[in-house]
Amino acid sequence: MALRSAPLLLLVLVALxxxxxxxxxxxxxxxxxxxxxxxxxxxxxxxxxVGYVDGQVFVHYDSNSRxxxxxxxxxxxxxxxxxxxxxxxxxxxxxxxxxxxNGLETxxxxxxxxxxxxxxxxxxxxxxxxxxxxxxxxxxxxxxxxFLTFDKETLTWVAPQPQAQISxxxxxxxxxxxxxxxxxxxxxxxxxLERYLSYxxxxxxxTEPPEVTMxxxxxxxxxMETHVCRLxxxxxxxIEASWTRDGEVWLQDTLRGSVAPNADGTFHAWLSIQxxxxxxxxxxxxxxxxxxxxxxxxxxxxxxxxxxxxxxxxVAGLVLLAVIVGIWFFKKYQNEYRGASSV
Length: 343
Description:
8-stranded antiparallel sheet; 5-stranded antiparallel sheet
């Protein structure tokens, strides 16, 4: 069971670690993901720690290298500001590696499990939205299931499994531990996030406006029109995009895709709507983004008629036929001329 479920939790926690704004207000985040595995494949590390700023990997540590290392060029500024930065944080990861190794053994015994593949993972971090809104979370998982989640409002750990309640009672009983964790998530973590943003401001704080394009087609069955509003090349990730009718947000008969990355570090997204063509002029694709001084309201386009395409294809076919016939007559005339002029 553990062998099948462990990769599932890995995907869930990585998704949580990378989770950023969708269609919404701009925000910044600092998140860390730890994963320890009891029986790694040959050559693979048994412990990995990765740090993300705004979904971008900026530091990496594993039990093979046993050294925290930068993954972006702007982290060179950290060492210039503090020559001990890498040594101090490497020690923190070394301690986490030992703690996670011991945790695997403890939990395997607590669950009365035999040798085999088991995972012990953690994802935690903070988010800054605007100047006042600050969020943070901390979650542990074991063998494909949530093990403990920190509730910073009640200053307690939430245990969804009986085996986790032992750790819950133990951690909640340590004086000042939970208050310290809350302070880290809402204060210290935010301070480091702001520092990293200052290091990488050329890339992390840049703004690039979306290129908005419209495409449309008419459905053969019912004559309704489907319009797609595509947003491409924008940064940061967060964007407000919606369909409006007569200036009001319109959700009926609409779909939207997720915000996805481009190879150059920018993002793209789309949203579609199905409408009665008689009411086309009432609709707009409304876009708001940090890079735009004013929101965009893009009108829908009339679908291109397929009749023109059919006529074009027929004309092209006739031209091609004429060329083929011309070549045939030319070769026939050439052969007859050669036959008549031969001795």
